[in-house]
Every structure is written in structure tokens, then in C-alpha cells.
Task: inverse folding
């Protein structure tokens, strides 16, 4: 099956089956960390500020932890950074994602690639 590649989508749900964190929200956290501003992260990811804020609220409510520190700015705009818990979540999900990706590639090689 040389024309196929293994790919997957990963997300974490709460106990009610509602999505809390997935690749899109992880990308948003990474962009905030990199760009230093929620608005800049939204422009970079080409998503609306309203959607981003709603996604972040879902995570914060589900985990009951603040993820962002916001400082309103003057002429150059504000700054948004991740809290220590936000950084922990970013790193933990990244490591989790990497481990699952390795496992998926291994399973693909074992079961599909040899066909």
C-alpha cells in the first residue's frame, strides 16, 4: 500500500463526551506562545478572535485552570502569555501527541504498509 500514509486526529474529551483539547486548540496554544498575543495567534492561524477565545474558554472551564495571562497594551498592543499551567498543558499534549504518532506509524508499518 505504497500510496497510503498513516494519519490521525487526536483529541481529549471530558466525561460527557465533549471535546476539550485537540490538535486545533493545541496549535492555538502554540501560536500564542510563539506570537505573544492572542490576536497575532489568530491572524497566524487565520481564525477569528471570537472562535479562539471560545476554544480557550472551553479548555479553561473543563480543566478549571487559567491558561492565559493577558496584559492590555498601549500603542503596540497587548501581550498574552501562557500561564505555567498553560505551558504544562502545551508540553504535555505535545509529548502525548508525539507518542501516539509514533505508535500509529509503528502499527501502520506492522499491519498496512506490508500489503
Result:
Amino acid at each position: 500500500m505504497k500510496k497510503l500514509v498513516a494519519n490521525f486526529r487526536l483529541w481529549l474529551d471530558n466525561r460527557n463526551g465533549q471535546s476539550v483539547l485537540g490538535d486545533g486548540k493545541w496549535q492555538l496554544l502554540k501560536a500564542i506562545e510563539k506570537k505573544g498575543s492572542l490576536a497575532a495567534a489568530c491572524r497566524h492561524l487565520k481564525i477569528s478572535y471570537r472562535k479562539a477565545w471560545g476554544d480557550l474558554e472551553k479548555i479553561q472551564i473543563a480543566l478549571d485552570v487559567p491558561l492565559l495571562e493577558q496584559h492590555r497594551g498601549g500603542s503596540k498592543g497587548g501581550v498574552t502569555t501562557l500561564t505555567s499551567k498553560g505551558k504544562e498543558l502545551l508540553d504535555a499534549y505535545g509529548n502525548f501527541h508525539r507518542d501516539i504518532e509514533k505508535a500509529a506509524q509503528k502499527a501502520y508499518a506492522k499491519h498496512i504498509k506490508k500489503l
Remarks:
- The two ends are 6 Å apart (CA to CA).
- The first helix runs from residue 23 to 35.
